[in-house]
Amino acid sequence: MAATAGAVAVLSLIIVLGNAFKQIFELLVNDELPISLIFKMVGLLIPQALTFTMPWGILVAALIVFGRMSQDLELQAIRAAGIGLVPLVAPVILFGLFLSAVCFYNNAVVVPMTLQKFKSVLLDIGRDNPAFLIRAGEAMDRFPGYRIYIGKKNGTDLTDINIWELDPDGVPRRNIRAEKGSLSADLDDLSLTITLQKARQEERGENAGDLNGIRAGLSADQLPLKISLRSFLNPDDMKDIRIAGLGDLTNRILSPVEGYVDPKQMYPMLTEMQKRVSFALAPFTLLLVGIPLGIRVQRKETSVGVVISFFLVMAYYALILLAEGLKNRGGAYPELIVWMPNLLLQGYGFFLLWRANFQQS
Q1: How far apart are CA 272 and CA 287, in angstroms?
Q2: CA dihedral 132, 135, 139, 145 (to 10 degrees)
Q3: How would you class 341 by CB atoms within 10 Å of its CB: exposed for 0-12, middle for 13-18, buried for 19 or more?
Q4: Based on the domain organization, do 101 and 179 belong to the same domain?
Q5: Which residue, of 192, 216, 232, is where some domain finishes?
Q6: Same domain for 32 and 18
Q7: Which of 79, 119, 228, 335 could join 270 in a cystine, given CB atoms 3.0 to 4.6 angstroms apart?
Q8: Residues 106, 192: one domain?
Q9: pTM of the model
């Protein structure tokens, strides 16, 4: 239990910090947000990280603890006292089942609730200050149909502006340049307007890849460019199945409401629901494999256990990702594929335990 808690804490810290850096970096760089709000947003990401770190942590603990016991000949001493492998590992198996129950509650209730709160915080920040979506010093592809580069940003004032309008294939068709500009937002319309000062335009011909075909376009003292923010600040995103609670998913599947559930989402919802239940069994599944592997490897070094656990976890989640990729194809039965990692690894784990018990008897 101590080894599991330590492994989960370390792995969660790594994953949460990486995820927080990716999702909150622009808020830290471009906005003066209260540090308490930043810590709140980081805290809301912890339950999602626990979905992955609790199974991984108990696997690391099993590899290290049983590897050390095997290396130090403690297992031989226990066997000499007349205690077999099954009664020795039974309490550990029960602990794995308990951790799976904790994972189920986390996946079904806590993670959706915290992700909804995280999304609500982003929506509130976006409504209060939509300018946080604009980052200076890098080319941004986040706005559909545009690629935008802002040299510097000071509040709502922008300098060194380059905007490329893209065709559906992502090929630039028009370039707009301006030395200065300003930002304004229409929260009712969920749109952001960049007003360019002394804007210059360049048009491309039919062959967008032919740079010789670029020609000068119109110029304007002031050119407002309206960009939709609905892909970022749309309240309907709260209906996303990825942040819906397990009870909500079940109700949508069993009692679909017209206009609320797209029939095309039925298989994705089934896959999402089955994935969460399957994830809950991950601690028990990986523990079954970790115990006999730890005995067989006979190493007490932490690095060896972490490396072995990494490859096992990658193999487990690779099959989950396969089902995720097929969630829109009902004929592939993605809602059943998500159970393959548990079935395969549990069968392999029971086989390894049986063989380890047979070899020690």
Answers
A1: 24
A2: 20
A3: buried
A4: no
A5: 232
A6: yes
A7: 335
A8: no
A9: 0.65
Minimal CA–CA distance to 240: which of 77, 73, 118, 59? Answer: 118
Residue (of 183, 121, 182, 171) closest to 145 by Cα position? 171
- For 181, phi then psi, to 5°, come to -170, 180
Q: Are residues 241 and 353 in the same domain?
A: yes
Most confident listed range (88-97, 306-315, 350-359): 88-97
- Answer positive or negative: Cα dihedral of 170, 175, 181, 182: negative
Give pLDDT, residue 271: 76
Structural domain boundaries enclosing 199 = 134-232
Point out which residues pair with 219 in neighbouring strands. 200
Q: Same structural domain for residues 160 and 290?
A: no
Tell me: do 325 and 192 sit in the same domain. Answer: no
Q: Which residue has the higher pLDDT, 70 or 92?
A: 92
Query: Whats the size of the chain, residue-wise?
Result: 361
Q: Could you tell me if 129 and 119 are in contact, meaning their C-beta atoms sit under 8 angstroms apart?
A: no
Distance CA 289, CA 297 (A): 12
> What is d(CA 192, CA 17) in angstroms, rounded to the nearest whole number?
30
Amino acid, res. 20: A
Give SS3 for 235.
helix
Burial of 343 from C-beta contacts in 10 A (0-12 / 13-18 / 19+): middle
Which residues are bridge partners to 150 per DSSP? 161
Cβ neighbours for 324, distance < 8 A, ≥ 6 positions apart: 271, 275, 334
Q: Where does a domain end: 232, 254, 269?
A: 232
Residue type, 145: G
| Nearest by Cα to 58 from 17, 102, 111, 1 | 1
Per the structure, the count of domains in the chain is 2
Q: Are 177 and 199 in contact (CB under 8 A)?
A: yes
